[in-house]
Amino acid sequence: MPADVVGVTWQWVSLTTPVERLTVDAPERYTIRFDSAGRVALRADCNRGSGRYSVSADRRITFGPMALTRAMCPAGSLSDRFARDVGRAAIYFLKDGDLYLDLPMDSGTLRFRRQA
After folding, report:
1. In this structure, what DSSP letter does residue 4 have?
2. Which residues pair with 40 in a beta bridge?
3. Which of 3, 20, 26, 91 could lock onto 102 through a cystine, CB 3.0 to 4.6 A?
4. How confident is the model at residue 11 (pLDDT cuts 50, 70, 90)?
């Protein structure tokens, strides 16, 4: 993982799929943070999680099983979708300072911005 991605808290701002464009109303409630030891920490609304990740030279990313709390978040929460989609991510890239996680088979892209 590039040094400018590690140690940064990234806020989820949008999801683009072939059939929808979702803008996240409260990006600060959906975050991801990578460390240099191959661990990832998630905030998925009212839930927290962690797991392992690995990356290859061709920007492929793989997540191991995530340990995630299972609190019941308020109606309308994107907690489950966020955790599921992050775990499915296949490729990462940076563009204009934002972090993108591409889902397999062109099924969608999660966009993150640096937490201020």
Report:
1. T
2. 34, 51
3. 91
4. very high
Overall fold of domain 9-114:
Lipocalin (2.40.128)
Alpha-carbon gap, residue 106 to 90, rounded angstroms = 10
Q: What are phi and psi of 104, to 5 degrees?
A: -65, 155
Q: Any residues with CB less than 8 A from the CB of 14 and at least 6 apart, and which? A: 21, 22, 23, 24, 110, 111
Q: For 52-91, give one letter per residue: b (16+ CB within 10 A) or e.
A: ebebeeeeebebeebebeeeeeeeebbbeebbebbbebeb
| Residue 26 vs residues 49, 65, 90: alpha-carbon distances, Å | 18, 25, 25
Reported pTM: 0.94
